[in-house]
Design goal:
InterPro entries: TPR-like_helical_dom_sf. It is built from six helices and no strands. With 101 residues, it is mostly helical. It has one domain.
Length: 101
């Protein structure tokens, strides 16, 4: 709850978002994908970095959430539309996308 309040008031740095996302995934049950996806979307919107976007892509690839490959591909394509041309963030997303596809 404290993290949600902080995120509503200030822009959280990448490390805080990554820690929060990791904690929530570790605590989540198999049926919690929707809530995790909403949190990952918020992180990507608030702090659009390659590491955060790739964390969202990994969420879609987790076997326990059994998402369709097309869903994962759509997240990668969304990430690339935002970061694909960025000189330092883009290559990281492209490389991960190529290894997925």
């Amino acid at each position: 709850e404290a993290r949600r309040q902080a995120a509503a008031r200030v822009a959280l740095p990448e490390e805080i978002w990554l820690e929060w996302l990791q904690d929530e995934v570790a605590l989540a049950g198999d049926d919690d994908f929707g809530e995790l996806e909403v949190l990952h979307q918020a992180a990507c919107s608030s702090c659009p970095t390659a590491r955060i976007w790739l964390t969202r892509c990994q969420l879609h690839q987790e076997e326990r959430f059994s998402q369709e490959p097309s869903s994962t591909r759509a997240v990668y394509e969304e990430a690339l539309s935002i970061l694909g041309l960025h000189p330092s963030e883009g290559p990281e997303v492209w490389a991960d996308y190529r290894s997925f596809d």
